[in-house]
Amino acid sequence: MRESRALGSGAARSQRARALLVAAAIAVLDFLTKRWVEASLAPGEVVPVTPFFNLVLTFNRGAAFSFLGDASGWQRTLLIGIAVAASGFILYLLHRYRDQPLFCFALGLILGGALGNLWDRVALGHVVDFLDFHVAGYHWPAFNVADSAITCGAIALLWDAFRASRRQR
C-alpha cells in the first residue's frame, strides 16, 4: 500500500467523508431493494425482466456462491465476525490512506456492501439475493446490490493498484 501524504488535510478528510457517504448510500440502497423484493416475491418465485435477467427471491446462509450454505449454523457467527473485522479494517484504511480518491471510493463500495450483507445476517440469519443473470440455460448465482458493490469495489482496488504500479515505473 502507498503511504498517505497529508493525513490532516481538508481534501483528505473530504475523501474519507465521501467514502463513508458512498458506504451509507450502498447500505441503504441494498436494504431498500431487499425489503422491496421480499415484499413483492415469494421465495423461489421467478419474474423474467429481460431474456437474460430475472428477479428471484433466494436466501443465502453461506458466503459468496453459497459457500458454507449447507453448514449446520456455525457459519453465521463466522461470517458475521469476518464482516465486522473487515469493516473495522476498512475504516482503518480509510483513515490511513484518506488522501487517495479512487482507493477510498473503492473501500466505500466494499464497506457499504459488507454492511448491507451484515445487516441481513444479523437480523435475518441469511442474506437476501434476488438478481439472477442467465444465458443459454446457465444461471450465475443470484446476488444483490451489496454483492455488486463489493465486486465493483474490488475491481476499483485492482485498477488503483495497477495505476500506482505504472506510475512507479
Give the helices and strands as they follow along the chain.
Answer: HEEHHEEH
Terminal-residue CA separation:
16 Å
Classify the secondary structure makeup into a structural class.
alpha+beta
* Count of separate structural domains: 1
- Overall shape: it is globular
Keywords: Aspartyl protease, Cell membrane, Hydrolase, Membrane, Protease, Transmembrane, Transmembrane helix
Main location: membrane
Catalytic activity: Release of signal peptides from bacterial membrane prolipoproteins. Hydrolyzes -Xaa-Yaa-Zaa-|-(S,diacylglyceryl)Cys-, in which Xaa is hydrophobic (preferably Leu), and Yaa (Ala or Ser) and Zaa (Gly or Ala) have small, neutral side chains
Protein name: Lipoprotein signal peptidase
Description:
The protein is of the alpha+beta class. It has one domain. It has four helices and four strands; from the N terminus they run αββααββα. It has helices spanning 10-40, 74-96, 101-124, 145-168; strands spanning 46-50, 53-60, 127-135, 138-139. The radius of gyration is 18 Å and the shape is globular.
Short note summarizing the structure:
The protein is of the alpha+beta class.
Q: What structural keywords apply?
A:
cell membrane, globular, 4 helices, alpha+beta, 4 strands, EC 3.4.23.36, 169 residues, aspartic-type endopeptidase activity, four-stranded antiparallel β-sheet, transmembrane
